[in-house]
Amino acid sequence: MSQVKGRHLIIDAYECDSALLDDLSYLEQTLTNIVLSLGMEKLAFQFHRFEPHGVTGLLLLSTSHMSIHTWPEYSYAAFDLFTCGDNDPSTQIDALLRGLSAKRAHVYGVERSNGKTAVPPMVWELRTLDEQPETEPTHQSVYSSEKANIDLSLDRGDQYDQIERQQLLAGDHKMLFQGTSSYQRVELVEAMEMRMYLDGQLQFSSLDERIYHEALVHPAFTHASSHERVLIVGGGDGLALREVLKYKTVLHVDLVDLDSMVLDVAKYVPKVVLLNESALHDPRVVAHPQDADEFLNNVTTPYQIIIVDFPDPADEIISTLYTKEFFGRLSSCLTDNGVLVCQSFSPEDAPLVYWSIGLTLEDAGLYTKAYHCLVPSFGEWGFHIAGRAPLTVMPKQLLVPTQTLPSDLAPLFAFPTQILEKRNEALVNTLQDLTLHKLYQSEAGKKN
Questions:
Q1: Based on the structure, what is the number of domains in the chain?
Q2: Among 32, 168, 385, 407, which residue's Cβ finds the most Cβ atoms within 10 Å?
Q3: Rounded to whole angstroms, how far apart are CA atoms 218 and 212?
Q4: pLDDT tens-digit readout, 95-135
Q5: Same domain, 267 and 394
Q6: Which of these three, 93, 127, 161, is where a domain ends?
């Protein structure tokens, strides 16, 4: 059997973002990140920008080299990657292409061995975006679903998400990104606005996401006595993070999201970066593409604020993130006077889901305050603030400027009688008795 001595990739990337291809600093950082991801050592580098445009760069590595040359006027870039030993540069092709917003690429790959049997070259084409389709797109992606233990034919979005998504895709639109990770299908669609869907469930619309994210973040900050350390679980799009970073008193943020694809979209897709105001590039932020339960195993310093921005509990797996046990783990990571806020679905469309999340927080030993606001893309939307100690009286004013929150937050904490009445029917969601997804499927009209 031959032993691999090295891997050589030549990549032609087409229909890239021309501005990124002409940004020397960005290209240098992108290639450096790939080198670090591969665990290789950068010995030397040289990058040069030509006039009027174009960049050439070379990184000399402890395990060979990596080079790039760009033609921004043609939205084209050429890469040459060679590594020795166990390092496999093909694992970074997707990050490289997404970093340049490339729509398609041709890859020529060769494995070099010290055996007698040569490995034949491989040539393949990757696509991240297609031309506008007349029907729902069937784009290929730089990601593969072959290893994913999910059924891509299933959506977890409710009937409103499904109808709106179908109408959006049937009309004039642009698919900014589409891929399938090991966890879910990710779609970023632009028509009159930009929308992100995860397995068909709407995550945000650029038209009104600020209403949701300002309501998620700022009431909690007004209740917290200090803001130095913040933990965000979920929220990989970076939009809640954008609001957190408005506070100069924030010194460190850990952003934990299971799906590295969502984090990469937030960090590298230009229009999402513009929307989240480059939040994932802030030096105060450390992004962790891992399971939140695993992350909590290693927390040694508590947080003043924890923000829970998970997807809605549409299935049993996500329901486990809204359990007494998980909320208890989050509580143990809070300072004594710390504050936790949790997005809690719609108190109007699914009051049992909403109040059950609040009751589960309380059963985990936390004191809670319930509030809500109107987000047009989702309807009336609910949140719970929670703390290990009783929460203070509502502060009189916000600490930073916002665009959508009222100057007086008190109305957000008032509920109509018909919603309050459902509070007595709430159930505690535990790992031994997962009920939240069943309530969701019943109240939100989810079809099994």
A1: 3
A2: 385
A3: 10
A4: 788 888 888 888 777 766 555 545 555 555 555 544 333 33
A5: yes
A6: 127
Maximum separation of any 2 CA atoms in the chain, in Å: 79
pTM of the shown model: 0.67
372 in the same domain as 269: yes
Query: Does 186 share its domain with 314?
Result: no
411 in any annotated domain: yes
Residue 340 and residue 330 in contact, taking contact as beta carbons nearer than 8 Å: yes
Q: Does 151 count as an annotated binding residue?
A: no
Measured distance CA(361)–CA(357) in Å, rounded: 6
254 annotated binding-site participant: no
DSSP string, 419-431: HHGGGGG-----S
Provide the pLDDT confidence category of residue 166 given band limits of 50, 70 and 90. confident
**Rounded CA separation 235/177 (Å):** 18
- Residue 320 within any structural domain of the chain: yes
Q: Which amino acid is at 367?
A: Y
Q: State yes or no: 437 annotated in a binding site.
A: no
Helical ranges in 200-238 per DSSP H: 209-223
Residue 374 contacts by C-beta under 8 Å, 6 or more apart in sequence?
Answer: 211, 380, 381
Catalytic residue ranges: 64, 69, 84, 309
Shared domain check, 231 and 293 = yes
Q: For position 39, what pLDDT does the model report?
A: 75
User: Is 4 buried (19+), middle (13-18) or exposed (0-12) by CB count in 10 A?
Assistant: middle
On whether both 193 and 215 belong to a single domain, the answer is no
Backbone angles phi, psi at 443, to 5 degrees: -80, -35
Helix (H) or strand (E) holding 263: helix 260-268
Question: In the block, which residue shows the tokens 């730089």?
Answer: 142
Asked which of 190, 207, 224 is the last residue of a domain, the reply is 207
The residue with tokens 């393949």 is: 124
* 154 and 293 belong to one structural domain: no
Q: Is residue 448 part of a domain?
A: no
**Residue whose tokens read 């992004």:** 287
Structural domain of residue 175, as residue ranges? 137-207
Known binding residue 237? Answer is: yes
For 50-80, the pLDDT digits (tens) are 988 899 999 888 778 889 999 998 899 998 8
Please check if 158 is assigned to a binding site. Answer: no
441 touches 350 (CB < 8 A): no
Find where tokens 């609040």 sit.
358
Kind of pairing between the strands at 252-256 and 229-234: parallel
> Is 291 annotated in some ligand binding site?
yes
Same domain for 173 and 26, yes or no, is no
Tell whether 166 and 279 lie within a shared domain: no
